Amino acid sequence: MKKSKLLTASCHSCTYRHHHLGIEKHLQGGRLHSGETYCLYVGKKPKRFKKTELKKAPPTWCPMRKNKVVLTVYDFVNENERQMFTFLYDYCGGTCISTVRHQVVGTYEVNFDAQGFWDSEDKDALLGDIHVADFGIILLDDGLKLQCFFKERDVYIYQPYMVDVSKQKGEAGA
User: Fold this and answer.
1) Which range marks the domain in which residue 78 is found?
2) Spatial separation of the C-alpha atoms in residues 147 and 174, rounded to whole Å
């Protein structure tokens, strides 16, 4: 069975991407030329994108990219929430995964990215000493895009549009 690719980050949705139109002007210690696209990351000199860099994933020099991927593990707030969720999941045909029932258990720096985790055959061996309980949530943050995985018993399910977890990102210290 072929694994699907994860959704990747793009510079087109980045708030620091700027396509300059109009006359030349100085900004943050650099000169902006008309018709060029720049990265205006706060506190940095404007960096011009090459034509080929706009058509692919964010460049390697992107200041948003982190050196290490941060893995955050979420588990249920208490045992009652776990039992309620398990009942709804088993007998009612599933339920909405929400971080209202979950809390941060731990934050770790890891040497693999989200695509490497997703392509791995033995995900628990890749995690090593990091324990993820059944119906737990894993959040992998490389600075560009948050990738979320839900552990359904022994299977990890990719959750590409889970936004509740990203609201708790600041609480995790990531």
Assistant:
1) 69-172
2) 14
